[in-house]
Structures are given as C-alpha cells and as structure tokens.
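SEQUENCE AND FOLD
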Amino acid sequence: MQEITVSKANKAYALLKADADRILKLIQVQMDNLTMPQCPLYEEVLDTHMFGLSRQIDFAVRMELVEEEEGKALLDSLERQLNLIHEKSTQSQEF
C-alpha cells in the first residue's frame, strides 16, 4: 500500500510541475512575441494561471499527495523564474 501512495504522490508532483512548466512557457512566449509586461492581458493570464496552480497545489496538499513545503517551493520557483523573464523583457524594452 505504501508503494501506491508514494507512486500517487510522485505522479501528483509531476503533474503540478508540468503545469508550472506550461505556465512558464506560456508567459515566455507572450513576452517574446505578443505583449509587454504592462499589458492587462499579460497580467490577466499570469494571475489566472498562478491562481489555478496554487489551488491545484492546495488540493494536492490537502489530499496528502504533496508536502506543503514542496508545493510552496514549486510556486516560489515559478515566481522567481517569471520575475526573471519580466525583468529581462523590461530591460530589453528600455533600449
């Protein structure tokens, strides 16, 4: 039974990580091709997706599939990466 629980926990984390990676890629494409960081569409997409991911992580934590610290670390990592993309984009627009 322990193997099944560990397997489900690993799968849950992998799915959450895939969602985080998808958000990062979506924002990267937007920044590279479509919009500026000040655009309301950019902010709407980012806020909506980040809220959705945070709710998914919360659910996985409540189901005891992911440790709270793991979920928080995943969100923190994504936020740091998104901040780097944002900074890079705003620096390139200044030139």
